[in-house]
Specification:
The structure is a single chain. The chain is built from seven helices and two strands. The chain is mainly alpha-helical. The protein has a single domain, classed as Fumarate Reductase Cytochrome B subunit. Strands 1-2 form a two-stranded antiparallel ribbon. The structure holds protoporphyrin IX containing FE (2 copies).
Length: 216
């Protein structure tokens, strides 16, 4: 069966870096390793912002416009078992939910305090009621994120049981399916370039102190 490119290099890098960084953020958050936590948190925020840019100028399968579907299409995609080039309709809403949850998590982190030693970089600029709210949101939203991750992995396992391997394309970039049509793929290097610019800026503005602590 002919192999078709479905995920460009940037989407795959984005996905697996996200998985790794969420694990790092969980452990560092729980253990109070705040320098690691801040650097990883800034990296996730930069990844998401770069991914949103890529959603406008990236490959067809990365486009944000391709993520909006009618409720009927969502139901049909749950019933059907064919390969889709890109996210299917139900998966698209999961992806949008992840983008929102990760943005809320990252932005609330900027205003979160541990009430002892460590403040997010925006704590000094906002009212204490906001800091209190953001600190609660940062904890509660993470639990919602964990539930979303569990549903995401369960869905992938269910597709696997129904004979559809979605993980391999997210690793190799290629999928096989006679019903798949070709579409426009962009070089993932442009996505990396956008990420490097955003990450450098964010680390320059907020990350120098935790980076210095990490490497001293
Ligand atoms: C921290 C945990 C995870 C998070 C936050 C996460 C998040 C995401 C996001 C945001 C996407 C959309 C990618 C994009 O278009 O930019 C996605 C897709 C995908 N993820 Fe994950 N993911 C996680 C864990 C996993 C794991 C452990 C696996 C493998 C078992 C996995 C397999 C996949 C696959 C196969 C897709 C593509 C689904 C499709 O074909 O539509 N994810 N994930
Ligand atoms: C975007 C991804 C992020 C994730 C997944 C994440 C996750 C977590 C988790 C699981 C905790 C432990 C909460 C608890 O004690 O129950 C935590 C704590 C914390 N996070 Fe994040 N975080 C992220 C980003 C950030 C950012 C960008 C900052 C600030 C720059 C930040 C600042 C903090 C602070 C100050 C705490 C300590 C709160 C406390 O001990 O009460 N986080 N985070």
């Amino acid at each position: 069966m002919e192999k078709i490119k479905v995920w460009d290099g940037f989407i795959r890098f984005f996905h697996w870096s996200l998985v790794l960084l969420i694990a790092v953020l969980y452990f560092s958050g729980e253990e109070g390793w705040m320098d690691v936590h801040f650097v990883a948190g800034y990296s996730v925020l930069s990844l998401i912002i770069a991914r949103l840019f890529w959603g406008f100028i990236g490959s067809d399968t990365a486009k944000l416009a391709a993520l909006l579907h009618s409720p009927k299409a969502v139901l049909n995609s749950i019933k059907s078992n064919s390969y889709t080039r890109g996210h299917n309709s139900a998966g698209s809403y999961m992806v949008l939910a992840f983008f929102c949850l990760l943005l809320v998590q990252g932005v609330s982190g900027l205003m979160t305090t541990d009430d002892i030693l460590t403040d997010g970089p925006l704590v000094q600029y906002v009212a204490s009621s906001w800091v209190e709210l953001a600190s609660s949101v940062h904890k509660l939203n993470f639990d919602i994120l964990l539930i979303a991750i569990a549903i995401h992995i369960l869905a992938i396992v269910v597709y696997r049981i129904r004979g559809k391997n979605l993980v391999k394309p997210m690793i190799t970039g290629f999928s096989a399916g006679s019903e798949l049509k070709d579409g426009e793929m962009k070089s993932g290097w442009w996505g990396f370039l956008i990420l490097v610019v955003i990450l450098s800026l964010v680390l320059y503005i907020w990350g120098l102190e935790p980076l210095e602590m990490l490497f001293s």
